[in-house]
Amino acid sequence: MHPRLLRTALLLAALLLTCSTGRADPIEEFYRGRTVSFLVGEDVGGGYDSYSRLFASHVGRHIPGNPVVVTQNMPGAAGLTAANHLYARAPKDGSVIGMIDQGLYLDQMLGKPGIGFDFAKFAWIGRLLRVTGVLVSWHTSPVKTAADLKSHALIVSATGGSSRQNWLLLNGLTGAHLKIIGGYAGTANSALALERGEIEGMSFPWQVLATSQKRWLEEGKVNVLLQTVLDKHPALADVPRMVDLAPDADAERILRLFSSPYSIGRAVMAPPGLPDATVAALRRAFDATLADRDFQAAAAKAGLEIDALPGEQLQALIAGGGSLPPALIERVRRLVGVDSQAK
After folding, report:
1. CA separation (Å) from 236 to 9, 164, 291, 315?
2. Are 180 and 158 in contact (CB under 8 A)?
3. CATH of 27-130+265-336, one of 3.40.50.880, 3.40.630.90, 3.40.190.150, 3.40.190.10
4. How confident is the model over 137-166, as pLDDT tens digits?
């Protein structure tokens, strides 16, 4: 080839290469200069809020375009308000993500009124924590162990759907005497009510109790009665699981299923219908955030345990969740007070 033609060809090739490599990333272009809303389906001060704010304060650095991520609390209707909003009304473009109550997974299965979503169709970005829920009693209560629940009443606060369902099931399946009190907005307000003597017990994620109320444990202010998970937390080897109280095979099957949402735990999700590329970018940002040393240091400083699960695995876990035969579903619906006509 003539030298002049060769130089021209090389210049054209370089120009094409520059154009192709300089093409803007559409995900980065979308997020650059944008504010992303992180909706929390619970009040300020509880475990959902703490984990949401921790994650939201770091993830923006790892999303292409580095958007500002702002946390917004949307409590109401035991988590339904935020879940229905994220499913049906929030933009399906990646500008809104969030965290909703893990117990809504079972609410949908039971056909509870007000469900406007399909839990498995949310875009699951990743799990921050597999929750170990515990039921505690105040030291002045006659209920010191799980066995005492059959002989003594325990007045408990239930601020979330999961705990209320669990205690109703324990009453109906095992003969426990849990008197459920509503009206306290969030874990922090329930904890104050417990200290004031307005209630005698409440539920916590163990990871939150062991940090935010560490003094209670050190001073013997509470008795840890039971844990709601299937796999015991290492720190609670001597504490019975909820399923251990089952008196028969049907009760065990029900309580096993109702222990399953704790594997979903504190998880980040987005509305259904997001472009695949956006979901993939958010999942990469989730993984990068959890590997970020600044995030890890902030979690350690706040005493927030991390037990992560990548988005793809979490999506598969939720899609492959268990179920109950219709007769047991109807039994559960009666026990937790779901109108059999409201399906």
Report:
1. 71, 22, 28, 28
2. yes
3. 3.40.190.150
4. 999 999 999 999 999 999 999 876 678 889
